[in-house]
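Risk register update: the risk of archive-format incompatibility is retired. Evidence:
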Amino acid sequence: MGRNTVTGIDRIRRRRAWANGFTLIELLVVVSLIVLLASVGMTQYRTSVTRAQEAVLKENLFRMRDVIDQYYADKQQHPQTLEDLVTGGYLRAIPKDPFTGSVDTWQIIQAEPDPANPAADLGIYDVKSGSQKTALDGSKYSDW
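Archived output:
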């Protein structure tokens, strides 16, 4: 009877020892799943940040191009600098390029010479981003 009692106590101790902790395999599986989910989450986060920056860039380009057209319609000449749009009251401030983080990196496209007035200053016809990065759709931001 003493021998069976010791064996029964040993079984209880083994069960308790097993129930008190996790095996190394279980811990590795859990950690691997956490790392996998975190990497998926970070990828989604970075993509959403880039999409937001692209939306800001599109809006800034649309607004600046619209303002350049308004300036030309009002004054019958293109602005010489982007600062002319601010001093003329067409913009409150020159917007930042969201990918370069600067107002000084906008690429300016000069207007074609006017055949009726070849001596006139050319001025700014269009504006593009100064970033050389590639968009999510594969195009360059500087081509937008």
